[in-house]
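Example 3.2
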Amino acid sequence: MVEENPRAHEKLSEAVWVYRTSKRDLTGATPFSLTCGHDAVLPVEINVRSARIAYQHSLVHGNYLEAMLVKLDDLDIKRVRAHQHMQVQTRRVVRAYDKKKMLGIEVEVELKQRYIIASVSAKIFSLLPLLISSKSITAIQP
């Protein structure tokens, strides 16, 4: 890879940024928003002064912290919605697989592979109520 594209290391950070800020079909949200509770600020938004950035700069420090706490409280709801979205997408994949199977079309995906996403997401999200009830954020330190 290095011989084919010697400047690939310069593009890696851009590729990672795009991955973090792109919506996923499976969850319906970006990995960044599921982690931090809000969408990432793109560098171009700072240079151009988008409406979102202008609004954030107009907030008083206390109001900004309060708004961030509200977004963190809403993060659990957002994660639950992402899990529900994953379940819907998994059901769609299963239905499409079953439909092709009924028509007699050979499908490369084995029967056990269609349940991998559902079982992994069930294990991850079964811990969600424990995380929600055991930790509560009361303040954000600057």
